[in-house]
Structures
1.
Amino acid sequence: MAFCRVSQVCRLWRDVALSPSLWYNIDLASPCIKDKYKTSETVRWLCENRLTSVQELNVGGWKFVQIEPVLDVISKYCQDLRGLNLTGWKGLNSEHLKFLIANCPLLSRLDLSSINPETNQTRSALSLFSISHLTQTMGDRLTHLILANNRLAAIPQLITAIATHCANLQVLDLSNLRTVSHTTALLHIEKLQEGCQKLRVLRITNSQIALSAATLKEQVASPGFPALEELSVAGNAVDGFCSTPVMDDNSVERILKSSHKLKLLDVRGCSRVSDSSLVRVPAWDLEHLFLSGCYVTRLTGAGLELIAQKWSHSLIEVDLAWSTATQAVDLAVTALAEQGAVSPLRVLNLCGSSVSLSPVKAILLRCPLLISLNLSSCRALPRGMKRLYEGNEVTELRSTFEEKPEAEKEAKPSPEQEEMETEKVVGQNDQDSVLMVGENGASCL
């Protein structure tokens, strides 16, 4: 959409903006595009005239009467295509996916989110046969696979196919997955670790997936995910379709056993994840930590403080919302503030927690980069202070706690007050002079 705006500046900019060589990362899922223009004819015209050099193409949310002509146009004119987002293409089936893979030789990143969020059909693009063919055909060239928000069958077999054929996979998103049988699917994480050593991002957020049992020998022999930078296993404390939580301390330790490069960890809602596994995370430069609803936020010991101390030098964003242990959250927030002026902290979520005023004051005064502070529903804070602060609001809140210099503490009189005082002194001196003259005159008489 930026090219469309630039083309309206002048004729020269229009010529530059319309050059197909610049159209290499195009997002057509923007809400700025009206639905009446989201047609196969629009895609055809764009592919023929603008997208001949495109490498990243997002057509998520578009609805077509016939999918085959659209895929044919994309594969014919977009020969440099490397990433394709087909989010919400509910009519996509296994034959469509097979055609796309065969005719886009450079395709390595594929987003198939929300293809079949309600049912899993035999001919679906996400059936076991279809995904198995995808992994076998694409093999090492597949680097990104997004399967979020779908209902799938045979999830363990799908993971086995991915682990067997996709050695260069870097991003795997299994968020919001549901099984056809409404039961928890088992993920053999050690097998995935052996097959996908280059994995950087693993998301299992709010999915009916739990780690399968593994022998101690298998766990020790597993190489882990040495390149992993992001792990998200967040979910409800108790999933709506299963009776027990799916992630615990052992699961976290098995996934992160060798992840020294980890930058983001999201365990929100994991009611069986405690400080026992979190303090053992091998990464020392974590930047984003989300613990809301996690069991560790309800413990009264020093675990939360130890976690904050371990990563206080690197944390940019922290979520401690709904932490009910007052002393624990106070100590954790104080630990985050100990870095002082060098603290990288920018976002802190304390919504619904029992944090006290003193730690909040410390975090405001000692963390100069803080741009977002959520104090909504914090029952221990003064009335009127419980809300979300962003940008300049954080600066204003900080100023209310800053101590003024001693010289400024003594209220200086205004210029008007100084003038009045001066006049008063002058008037008093005049009266004294009159009295002295009067006394002298009386004595002379």
2.
Amino acid sequence: MAAELLGCLLVKRQLDGSLLRNVVVETEALITICDSIQ
């Protein structure tokens, strides 16, 4: 799943109407207590 996000463009409309654009350049995986139980 994370590899599919690389290079994706994320766009958010700000309260003033302007657009904030960002490209996903890296992802990270974290292990939580819930992950280790399953």
